[in-house]
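Table S2 (continued). Query chain:
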Amino acid sequence: MRAADAVETVQREMTVFARRARAAAGRLHPELSLVSYTLLGHLEESGGCRATDLAAHYALDKSTVSRQVAALERTGLIERRPDAADHRVLVLHLTEAGRRILAQVTESRRAAFRERLADWPAEDLSRFAEYLVRYNAESGSGPHG
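Corresponding output:
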């Protein structure tokens, strides 16, 4: 396959992958979009952060993050707490309900990946994982990076 054709195939298949991920997120928890799931995961990993930090980390518009955060607050999955170092700053944290939902969705996603990749030889699976890590490490910020 020529390099130009390979790049076109990668682009097409990544688009299918993203579409499938968005659809799967909706099936796993109807109120939890893929963006919301990603934000919850970041809050868990970081131990909490400001909304502006989320926007900067994911190269998203602040208004987009603000809408997502408001929706997650309304559903009781996150809450704002004063920062321990600066009480004027509010930091987003997962609630217990948020932790529970995130754990459920994460386990469902893992199970779906395990099922989909169950028949792959270990060498192919390892190579695929390495390629994804390499691709994501080299890509710029944003969805098209």
